[in-house]
Amino acid sequence: MLMKINPVAFSIGPLEVRWYALLILFGAIIGILIAEMEAKKKGIAKDDIFDLAFWMLIFGILGARIYYVLFNLSSYSNIMDIFAIWNGGLAIHGGIIGGAITMIIFCKKKKLDFLTIADITMPSVIIGQAIGRWGNFFNQEAHGPEVALSTLQNLHIPKFIIDGMSINGVYYHPTFLYESIWCILGFLLLILLRKFVKGMKAGQLTCIYFMWYGVGRFLIEALRTDSLMIGKIKVAQLVSVVTFAVGLVLLIILALRKENVKKRRK
Asked: What phi and psi values does residue 2 have, to the nearest 5 degrees?
């Protein structure tokens, strides 16, 4: 017997609280706690991290929604549907853009080093993405193409996920799960690099985040059936190529700058 997936976690009178919103909030809380621990080591005030997270969450969600709507205007004949984010429809690349702009403005106002703050927050961002992707599971969206039940069983995916990937009697690839796992691996990578690689320059960890997420999202997006499109090109794949390239170029520039500093010291 298939387990029925309910996108509503609980109701308070007429108000429905959805898993999608709860998971975004939970991811944000976990991210803040992780960022605060690292910020303390670098002498960054706890209040600054909390304030930054608050504004990044707001403008990140706003950016994610605007980005999604702009590339999917044909689906919003009723303008009120644009505000119904609890039904899904947030694009992570838009969230990253909104969050980055917020961080730049915040760091300038607080006179904080942007690259240092970015490195502090990137592990939080990617673990938040890993958690938030499960909102797609409860909404039964952001999945891949039709697939046989036996294929999912052979992947040793837990039964409740397989049941959730049965939509109107058809099974689909759980691409939300693939991306969540990729983000968890990315989180572990960033944490290990930050802990064990000495002498990393400010900004390098952020570059690695963009490269890691760019590769994973490009590959996973190839399976997605609900991609935002520009003609025949998947927007997320195009943006992933750009983010990977930018991350790689900046990583090299920062590494060379580090070498130049060493040469001058000699």
From this structure: -75, 140
